[in-house]
């Protein structure tokens, strides 16, 4: 196949709608040889201060969230610069996007714009090469399916209840395949629905942005106790087959040096004591953003106190930024990196963050956003990079299940050569 076949022939974009009914940008890349790719930028509700900036229109249309300026930038400014470039030069193309923006946080052309274009480029090159996207990105060694971590009870900014912590998750790791793990998750989700409806009524099983339930709970023990019961009712053993996870999203709780939890302003030491109590009493193997995004010392204290039992994962702390990953890992502040391509704005920068984590023995988890779409890119990315986990929401709402369905397809495509990351989890946390 001639190299010219991979050259970009046409780039265009349009405005589409995400899972919250807000506009977002979809980019298309067409190649000279017929290869075709697309990408849609997701959007978060809980955002770190250092995330790439979304470019939105403001004004009254679309409640100020329109992206017509971003679309116009792609069609008039970016497209002429990309046409004729070899789509396989992903790093070059992403660096060109960064240079065209020219700001530290991609505020000129928008991190949403660069994300959609970066993903579309990778898809087009994979299509032209005749490869599955995960194979194009990861090579022949991309055969491991990640552990799904599923947000099934919501709090914080994802819900209207009194739970301070943002997400309570199930982690089905004690299985031999991704298919078996998802089956268990679906069964547990169904049992959880029944328990919540019985205790709190029909409104408790309405689902939020990520498909999780938002029952009228207040203390963190309530969802954790209920999840253990749902796991057991589904016929699984908590801690051995299915464990639990928490995304505290503690930046949302931080005020003037203290954390607002359960109606009280508490110190970082008191908050760490809460986590210690929860980890001792429940099979928690995943703890995300336990402290605010600049509180490196508290993250380090969490690693020292809890990492023998649970991953300490940085989201707002790291914002998928390679330099932040290096800094945090050097300080011993994290054992896990949450990867969100749109946080940093390009696939290349996300891959650099993953490599920085790998080099320092930090596990990585590929993640969706609360405002997501039918784009399944993160499923392929998780397999391509050998991610330990994928965080894609509850087994409900098609923008969430599309990711899991894509992983089921990948596992089927790989056949007997596929493996599942689940059995590695407890050994990784407990040092083997």
UniProtKB/TrEMBL annotation:
Keywords: Cytoplasm, Glycolysis, Lyase, Magnesium, Metal-binding, Secreted. GO terms for cellular component: cell surface; extracellular region; phosphopyruvate hydratase complex. Its EC number is 4.2.1.11. (2R)-2-phosphoglycerate binds at residues 166, 340, 369-370, 391. GO terms for biological process: glycolytic process. SUPFAM superfamilies: Enolase C-terminal domain-like, Enolase N-terminal domain-like. The keyword Lyase applies. It catalyses: (2R)-2-phosphoglycerate = phosphoenolpyruvate + H2O. It is found in: Cytoplasm; Secreted; Cell surface. The keyword tRNA processing does not apply. It comes from the Archaea. Its cofactor is Mg(2+). Residues 8-137 form the Enolase N-terminal domain. It holds the Pfam family Enolase_N. One of its GO terms (molecular function) is phosphopyruvate hydratase activity. The gene is eno. Residues 142-428 form the Enolase C-terminal TIM barrel domain. This is Enolase. Catalyzes the reversible conversion of 2-phosphoglycerate (2-PG) into phosphoenolpyruvate (PEP). It is essential for the degradation of carbohydrates via glycolysis. Mg(2+) binds at residues 247, 288, 315. Pathway: Carbohydrate degradation; glycolysis; pyruvate from D-glyceraldehyde 3-phosphate: step 4/5. Binds a second Mg(2+) ion via substrate during catalysis. The active site is at residues 210, 340. Belongs to the enolase family. Substrate binds at residues 158, 167, 288, 315, 367-370, 391. It comes from Aeropyrum camini SY1 = JCM 12091.
